[in-house]
Amino acid sequence: MADLRKPEFWTNLIRKVLKQILQNAGIRTRKNSHNQHVVPHEEAGQSRAQVMSDIAAFTIIKMMRLTELKRLQGIINPPF
């Protein structure tokens, strides 16, 4: 138990009482924390594997379109 004869006890007690009085009066007793509020993205439910699969599929489709475009332009020989 705290020693009533020490001045730190009374100082801490007065601080705690004043803090409660100020909080009840609606006054902030702490500094602002500057933490940002994070709003989850609508696609946040996707797993990493699903995202990587989507990227791979996009890349494959893009490569197929580029190959077909080059084939039409005569840059690449036909596949047969």
Give the secondary structure arrangement, pairings included.
Elements: H1 7-24, H2 48-72
Overview of this protein structure:
By secondary structure, this protein is mainly α. It has a domain of 33 residues. The chain is built from 2 helices and no strands. The model has no long low-confidence stretch (mean pLDDT 84).
Count up the helices: 2
The separation of the N and C termini measures 92 Å
Q: How would the global form be characterised?
A: rod-shaped
Q: Strand-residue fraction?
A: under 5%
> What is the total tally of β strands?
0
Q: Determine the mean pLDDT.
A: 84
List keywords for this structure.
single chain; 80 residues; mainly alpha; 2 helices; rod-shaped
Q: What's a concise summary of this model?
A:
The chain has 80 residues and is mostly helical.
